[in-house]
Amino acid sequence: MRFLLLSPLLVNPVIKFSNSNALLGLGFQLYPRHSRYLRSPITMASAKPKPAAAVNKFPVEEECVGIARKCWIKFKRESTFALYTPFVVSLASGTLNLDTFRHYIAQDVHFLKSFAQAYEAAEECTDDDDAKVGISELRKNVIEELKMHDSVLKEWGIDLVKECTLNPATAKYTDFLSATASGKVEGVKAAKLATPFERTKLAAYALGAMTPCMRLYAYIGKELQAFLEGEKIHPYKKWIDSYTSEGFQASALQTEDLLDKLSVPLTGEELDIIEKLYHQAMKLEIGFFLAQPLIQKAVIPLSKDHNPAEHRLTIFSDFDLTCTVVDSSAILAEIAIITAPRSDQNRPENQIARMLSADLRNTWGDLSKQYTEEYEQCIEKMLLIEKAEKFDYERLHKTLEELSDFEKRANTRVTESGVLKGLNLEDIKRAGQRLILQDGCTNFFQSIIRNENLNADIHVLSYCWCGDLIRSSFSSGGIDALNVHANEFIFQESLSTGEIVKKVESPIDKVQAFSKIRMNCSNDKKDLTVYIGDSVGDLLCLLEADVGIVLGTSSSLRTVGNHFGVSFVPLFAGVVQKQKMCAGVDLSSCWKGLSGVLYTASSWAEIHAFVLGS
């Protein structure tokens, strides 16, 4: 098992335990990701929660960052969803049908006209001379871009009047932009915009609705630029180059700077309005991309062509550090230390005998040190084997058997030490309910469960010592319809005996559970499996799944994987490559296990966009 320590951010810092009359503050330290043993908790005094009034709208380190950057960071999820739209993926791969691109360009003309008008309105509203000059420059850039679009459309013989009527998604954005620029902003009364100072706020609102579009296109252009390398001919090179050019990147930055400048005198309530406008614009951009009529099939979202009568989609996921911010063993360890008696006089009668708190803390330190040293030795020993010239699953499997033996020995030491004795089931469930999951994780699983047409199965495979902790962490988010495969505490009158029902202790146990679940599925449907993990213990499952997705930055996982010929490919790059390879073929055959390729993702939002779309 991986032993990692808890962070103050993990749970609500105040939890009332069953054997204490006081509210106890929890504080913990983080240690190397493969270490699952608790070493030395921070003093509880240092972990006091901040009063609600002291909590900033944005993190402290971002206080000096302008509103434009803050909003871009806050709504990063939306930029990921825009990138993973079938239109953008097809364009990046060069397989986008030309008629679709022509339609897109024609719709973009309406966008640009609306932008030019909004810039003009913003320029008239602001009383800042420097801002007027900057907005005027941006408006001129849009007019030049319109001229370029017009010449392209004429080359293609497209009549703007006859063939370029607005589609509903385009109209939604242009109407939104026109309304904002004219002062029809939710939460703002027209009477409040009578003075020159008040009208300058309107310029800020207009830029709040336009800035996300500029930044999003600059971002997408940069992301797509990588797919031009090594390509002799890419049909959309000119489009990609235009948005990666110094001129456009500078315009995007200039728009953000102007938004920041005009937002300086705004109140907190007015900044909230900017934030809402920014978010709405991002969502409308996604809608615009999704509205482009694709002729060819797209490989994403993965669930797009899923028919429950013919297909079976099964999502597998690790728990610790894949779903969670920190490792579950840290929670259990800290509960054990805090609830343990502090002296012989404090020992409750007629309960399971427990170590004193100080002794328990020292024992955890010794277990942690031994585990860390032996784990590192195991990894080093694996790397002494001759490096594979190509993907070698069999040798990797055999090598991980030794790591599995080590993990089981480590667990035996834990149970024999008695450190897990006397934990109250209700304390464990409360800690699970307060457990912080990775951003986007809960939303992903909720979206799968709520989609009745998908009818997908979810299985969580974990080394966690206590399955009740996992179940309570998901149930707090309303996620009950998933299957948990983990170890279980043995309880006696709601108190843990210190023994564990050992079900999933090692990489071999995990892959055996994974294979058993797949075998138990009927053979009357086409299977598609996705496994999401973050550690060496997940390697075999990741490789056997049709799509293996690695979250996080585990160096040991990549080092061991590379040693046995495993390739790690960024998920978006892999999707674009699949779109290129699978054009015109049965998409169900695009993703197959044991290919030796794993895909790396930076967030659950990226996985959500890939599997489910926006």
Q: Overview of this structure, please?
A:
- InterPro entries: HAD-like_sf, HAD_sf, Haem_Oase-like_multi-hlx, Thiaminase-2/PQQC, Thiamine_Salvage_TenA.
- This is Bifunctional TH2 protein, mitochondrial.
- The protein has 22 helices and 12 strands.
- With 614 residues, it is α/β, with parallel strands linked by helices.
- Helix content is 51%, strand content 10%.
- It has 2 domains: 67-291, Heme Oxygenase, Chain A (Up-down Bundle), CATH 1.20.910.10; 311-342 and 353-612, HAD superfamily/HAD-like (Rossmann fold).
Task: For the structure shown, list the relevant keywords.
single chain, 614 residues, alpha/beta, Heme Oxygenase, Chain A, Rossmann fold, 2 domains, 7-stranded parallel β-sheet, 3-stranded antiparallel β-sheet
CATH topology of the largest domain: Rossmann fold
Structural class: alpha/beta
Largest sheet: 7 strands, parallel
How many individual β-strands? 12
How would you state the average pLDDT, rounded? 85
Gross geometry: globular
Kindly give the count of domains: 2
Strand content: 5-15%
CATH architecture of the largest domain: 3-Layer(aba) Sandwich
The residue ranges in which pLDDT falls below 50 over 5 or more consecutive positions are: 4-62
* CATH level 1 class label of the largest domain: Alpha Beta
Helix content: 40-55%
- What is the number of helical segments per DSSP (H or I, 4+ residues)? 22
CATH 4th-level superfamily of the largest domain? HAD superfamily/HAD-like
Distance between the termini: 35 Å
Protein name: Bifunctional TH2 protein, mitochondrial
Pfam families: TENA_THI-4
Domain Thiaminase-2/PQQC: 86-289
InterPro entries: HAD-like_sf, HAD_sf, Haem_Oase-like_multi-hlx, Thiaminase-2/PQQC, Thiamine_Salvage_TenA
